[in-house]
Specification:
30% strand; binds GDP-perosamine; 6-stranded mixed beta sheet; 212 residues; mainly beta; 8-stranded mixed beta sheet; 10% helix; globular
Length: 212
C-alpha cells in the first residue's frame, strides 16, 4: 500500500517536520490547517487543502501532528485523537541525523528531530516531539503528547508524564518525575519533582504556578 501522509498544522513546526520527512525519504502529501488564509497555498511545496474536516475522505493513510506550540486552536493531543478518529495511522519520523539507541522505543506519531539523541532503554510515547538537538538519556520514560523542546536535556531515569512541556535548553536532573501537563520554562534547571499541571522556571527551577 502506498502511504499518503497528512500533516496537521502548517506553521513553523510543520516546515521542520516536512524537511525531516524528506531527509528520511518520506513524502508529505498535504497539510490541514485551521487558518483559512492558508487554504490553497503551500508550505515548502506541500499543499494546504483545508481544515481538519478535510482529513476524512482525503485518501490519507497516515498522519503526523505538525503543530508544536499550544495556541488558540486545538492542542496536540486533541489533534492526535482526531487523526485516529479519521481512521489514519500515526506515523513516527526520525531525522537521519538523530542518534537513537537500539534499545530505545519510540511510539506512534512521534518525531525525533535533527541531532536529537535517545540513549539506552529510553522510552518515548505516542505523539511526542523530541525537538532539534534534545537529549533523552538512558532509562527515561516520556509519556504521550510530551514536547521536549530544542536543546533540552533529560538526565538518566527521568520520568515525564503525559502532555508535559520541557522548554528549550532546560535540563532535568537524574530520577526527577515531571507530572502530566506540567510546563518547564526555557533554560530551567529542574532538580526536584514537578507536580502535574504546574509551571516551574529558573535555575534552580521554582514553582511559578501550582497545578490548575
Ligand atoms: O486545530 C488546529 C489548529 N490550530 C492551529 N488544527 C489544525 N489543523 N491546524 C491548527 N493550527 C495551525 O497551526 C495554525 O493555524 C498555524 O498555521 C499552525 C501553528 O503555526 P505556528 O508557526 O504558530 O506554531 P508551530 O506550532 O508550528 O510552531 C511552534 O512550535 C515549534 C515547536 C513555534 O513556536 C516554533 O517556533 C517552535 N519551533
Amino acid at each position: 500500500m502506498t502511504m499518503r501522509i497528512a500533516l496537521l498544522g502548517g506553521g513553523g513546526h510543520a516546515a521542520v517536520i516536512i524537511e525531516a520527512m524528506r531527509a528520511a525519504g518520506l513524502a508529505p502529501a498535504f497539510i490541514v490547517d485551521r487558518n483559512k488564509a492558508m487554504w490553497g497555498r503551500s508550505v515548502l511545496e506541500v499543499p494546504v487543502i483545508g481544515d481538519d474536516d478535510h482529513l476524512a475522505g482525503s485518501g490519507a493513510t497516515h498522519f503526523i501532528v505538525s503543530l508544536g506550540a499550544v495556541g488558540p486552536g486545538r492542542d496536540r493531543q486533541t489533534l492526535f485523537e482526531l487523526g485516529i478518529a479519521a481512521g489514519l495511522k500515526p506515523l513516527a519520523i526520525i531525522h537521519p541525523t538523530a542518534i537513537v539507541s537500539p534499545s530505545a522505543m519510540i511510539g506512534a506519531g512521534s518525531a525525533v528531530l535533527a541531532g536529537a539523541v535517545l540513549c539506552a532503554r529510553a522510552t518515548v510515547g505516542r505523539n511526542v516531539i523530541v525537538n532539534t538537538r534534545a537529549v533523552v538519556e538512558h532509562d527515561c520514560t516520556v509519556g504521550d503528547h510530551v514536547h521536549i523542546a530544542t536543546g533540552a536535556c533529560l538526565s538518566g531515569q527521568v520520568q515525564v508524564s503525559e502532555a508535559a512541556f520541557i522548554g528549550a535548553g532546560a535540563a532535568v536532573r537524574q530520577n526527577v518525575v515531571i507530572g502530566a501537563h506540567a510546563c518547564i520554562g526555557l533554560g530551567s534547571a529542574v532538580v526536584r519533582d514537578v507536580a502535574a499541571g504546574s509551571l516551574v522556571v529558573g535555575v534552580p527551577a521554582e514553582v511559578k504556578r501550582m497545578s490548575v
